[in-house]
Amino acid sequence: MQAVLRVPVFYGWRVVAVCFVAAVFTWGFGVYGASVYLSAITKQHGWSVSLVSAAVTIFYLISALSPTLTASLIGRFGARPVFVGGALALGLGTAAVGHIATPWQLPVAFIMLGAGYSSLSLTGISTTLAPWFERHQGRSVAIALTGASFGAMLVVPALSSAIAQFGFAAATLAGGVLTVAVLAPLAAIVLRYRRPQELGLAPDGTPVPATAYHGARRSAAPEWSRRSAMRTVAFWSTTVGFALGLLVQVGFFTHQVMLAKPFLGVSGAGWLVSATGFANMLGRLVLARIVDRLPLRPYTAVILATQAVMLGLIALYSTVSVLIGASLIYGFCLGQITTLSPIMVRREFGAAAFGVIYGAAATLIQLTSAFGPGLYGVLHDAFGGYPPVLGLAGGVELVAMAVILLGGPIGRRAGKPVDLSHR
Question: Which CATH number does the domain housing residue 325 bear?
Fold first, then answer.
């Protein structure tokens, strides 16, 4: 028999797998779970949509204020303690949100959720993966963040069913315990290495001599600082464009259950969130295949324009078929917008300074997007429904598209960042 040559899998893909699992729990019980919590809490206590939406906004504000800290902690101590601590905070917050009895407890529970999300979300995942990949940096981030789509597909319907069968408190307690039991030990075991050089490898798994590794460490100075990056059109067009786009997106998927419930009922709305998550997953998988060959800014502009059209259709045509079809197309685009921001920063500013620069960008992006749930809630109560809110949201998406395009070829000819990934 002919011997079969076994090629070991690059350890970086194990790191991607842990980030994938982290995204499942983080987006499932955090981001998409917020839509379920909003519906369950307003129903259980009779509180207004705007009151509970304000608590969800606190969740996003907490996560928005921490990306720079998260990136710095991972850079200094590695991802393992940050991910383990994030799993504990996310689990406690998930359990606590089902045991809220008075309005003052709302912010407490959502602060814990926000602390967990801030450690395990986009900044934590992309900063953890940045040292491991060069050729496949876009693909690695896109695959890891596909876990967010699985969070919507699996966690949201399971959580909704558990609430209906066992009650809100029991369902969230089980979710919190599961989060800690699975994610904390997985991160502790796999994330013991911080970069491929510790295994005698270069990014993407290419073998390198030890002498080359030590020389690379001495000469690896970032080409950009936070201050120099913040003086460029590229930085601000990326930050403002994605901030506006995610402001709309976060508001939409937080209110999706409330939006769909009059058409589909509570159970049907939960399944629509799940289907949107499936479309989200398809979008990320497509992006993973093509992202390392794409001109990122024009592609991002097309995705934002498509989302604007879908929001306009839902606002203008109050039918079940339009709601479902437009939600699925919106979901296909949704995960790509979330995924593209770190890839764009990594490509235009390089790997060495990624944590510092993206930490600053992510703070501003998440700080802006944190107001999405509360803004949707206030406008819903002011207008008496969602159609005007969605129309305004579509307009904001078009503004985001224009801002993203500002950082294109004209900005680079003026001395702004070039595509460093192809050097």
Answer: 1.20.1250.20
